[in-house]
């Protein structure tokens, strides 16, 4: 192996390391953005519910403004959704998923 090869290998390793660190940083940033959006939507739901404390789930399901609060765009392809502590979906971008049970994600609070 020549000195030139050692330099190229070191640069390749450095580049790979920088790429790995950049990807990890972007993933953490994405997770933070998603978490902040979820907290923001939860707060909006709380404010709405305090304004209309007697609305039934049926009334909320038919309330266009409430649906706008519960299902919001996140990033380019994501969206928020609302389900209960049993994983039953109540508000979702896909109407066919409303009423179904969430599939637990690894590490989520739904897995027990």
Tell me about this structure.
This protein is mostly helical and 112 residues long. The protein is built from three helices and four strands, in the order H-H-H-E-E-E-E. The protein has helices at 3-51, 57-61, 64-70; strands spanning 73-74, 78-79, 82-83, 89-91. The strands form two sheets. The protein has a two-stranded antiparallel sheet. The protein has a two-stranded antiparallel sheet with strand order 3-4. A hairpin with a 5-residue loop joins strand 3 and strand 4 (89-91). The termini are far apart.
Could you list some keywords that capture this structure?
two-stranded antiparallel ribbon; two-stranded antiparallel sheet; 112 residues; mainly alpha; 3 helices; elongated
Task: Detail the topology: elements first, then pairings.
Blueprint: H1 3-51, H2 57-61, H3 64-70, E1 73-74, E2 78-79, E3 82-83, E4 89-91
How would you sum up this structure in a few lines?
The chain has helices at residues 3-51, 57-61, 64-70, and strands at residues 73-74, 78-79, 82-83, 89-91.
């Amino acid at each position: 192996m020549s000195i030139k090869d050692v330099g190229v290998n070191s640069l390749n390793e450095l580049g790979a390391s920088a790429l790995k660190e950049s990807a990890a940083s972007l993933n953490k940033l994405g997770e933070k953005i998603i978490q902040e959006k979820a907290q923001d939507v939860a707060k909006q739901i709380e404010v709405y519910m305090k304004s209309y404390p007697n609305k039934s789930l049926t009334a909320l399901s038919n309330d266009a403004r409430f649906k706008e609060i519960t299902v919001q765009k996140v990033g380019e392809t994501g969206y928020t959704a609302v389900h209960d502590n049993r994983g039953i979906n109540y508000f979702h971008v896909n109407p066919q998923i409303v009423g179904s049970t969430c599939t637990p994600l690894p590490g989520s609070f739904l897995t027990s």
